[in-house]
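Chain A, query sequence.
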Amino acid sequence: MNINNIPFQITDWSKIPMTEHKGETGVAFWRTLKFGDLRSRMVEYSKNYKADHWCQKGHIIFCIEGEMTTELADGQEFKMAKGMTYQVSDDLSSHRTYSKYGVKLLIIDGAFLKLQPEKK
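Chain A, predicted structure.
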């Protein structure tokens, strides 16, 4: 499906099947919709969740409830709480997330976040 051709639709996230993804600690629960190369996910990280890998993929992340910290490979840390977002293109950071108390997120990613060469 071409992502430019998504018809109007409403998503009842409670009806989307949930998949479980173990972290280094804790677990993530994903509900995923795909439209071509566009992926939209409702994600919940459990208490004491820590990603089991460093991610290079671009994301747009909206924090629905709870809080989390995203750590960059260079040691920087960024805390996100309810109502906050972050956005990054593919290959512009090596990042991983952890959440002490749990968090619920809407995560959007896809080819539109691929790193584009700078124009001269």
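Strands lie at 18-22, 27-35, 38-45, 49-50, 59-72, 77-81, 85-88, 95-99, 103-109. The radius of gyration is 15 Å.
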